[in-house]
From TrEMBL:
This is O-acetyl-ADP-ribose deacetylase. Residues 1-177 form the Macro domain. PROSITE patterns: MACRO. Transmembrane segments: none annotated. NCBIfam families: PRK00431.1-6. SUPFAM superfamilies: Macro domain-like. PANTHER family: GANGLIOSIDE INDUCED DIFFERENTIATION ASSOCIATED PROTEIN 2-RELATED (PTHR11106), MACRO DOMAIN-CONTAINING PROTEIN (PTHR11106:SF27). InterPro entries: Macro_dom (IPR002589), Macro_dom-like (IPR043472).
Amino acid sequence: MTARVTLVRGDLTEQHADALVNAANSSLLGGGGVDGALHRRGGPEILADCRRLRAGPYGKGLPTGQAVATTAGKLAAAHVIHTVGPVWSATDDRSALLASCYRESLRTAAALGARTVAFPAISTGAYRWPMADAARIAVRAVRDALAADPGTVREVRFVLFDETAYRAFEDALAAEG
Ligand code: AR6
């Protein structure tokens, strides 16, 4: 069975899904944007899990482009998958790292048996990646990963916070066919 890619305009923290992907930073200890919102709504259990990861396998933090799962606390999901997007650079092409966030998050989700996975537009806020370009990279990375091996994943949902983001993802999906 093939997996669907869907778009919704809304707040990631209100989504019902098996896994919600967090646009985190390497510290895993919280921040603003989606990260702050997920921790606020999910409650302290998420941060407690993140601290355990820092005390154990991720002593130096989570590298850019990688992903790791924790509990979702009080969120309407089984897991939060934390990934670290690259900071936008006009001089250095970091698009492979941004694609890696989507691919590694989906791999992590499938390893947990997740069927529905919801993503924000990683790196397009504090990390300043231009929306249209980020949307193209995100859609291509997800389509490629699902085509290669969807595992248990049946729906990938992009959750876009505003109309500009929604339109950019709509255009990127249409362009991919
Ligand atoms: N639901 C969906 N999308 C959201 C929400 C929400 N509740 N809140 C913001 N967005 P950002 P980044 C959009 O800054 O660029 C944090 O401090 C937002 O409009 O959350 O990857 C971390 O700790 C934007 O389009 O993530 C890191 O330090 C997109 O989500 C750093 O920011 C991503 O914006 C990561 O920066």
